Amino acid sequence: MMYNEERERFQSEHFADHLEEEIGKEYITTDAIDVYEEKGQSTAWSSSRGLGYIALLFSLLSLFTAPVLFGTGGIIFGVMARNRGVAGLATTAIVIGALSIIGNIFF
Length: 107
Fold this sequence. Notes:
By secondary structure, the protein is mainly α. The chain is 73% helix and 0% strand. Helix 3 (43-62) packs antiparallel against helix 4, helix 3 (43-62) runs parallel beside helix 5 (87-106) and helix 4 packs antiparallel against helix 5.
């Protein structure tokens, strides 16, 4: 109880009523979002593109180590990216991942 009274006294002495409004809005920058919207792209498109790059990374890793593991991951992430509209990266990742798995089976 004593703590709450001291806290209220401190706030009433040091903070005016007009300072109780929310601050910090001027510190939030939306420049990146504005740039995407100006180009006709959304931030959702950029995250889908990131998923395509992850799929491609997995597929390329499958060429050097653990082809079944990384190849399967590349194919799965590639299909997810393709469903979100990033066809070029996704198709490349799917093909590389599949070739890596097939190469591991036969060679």
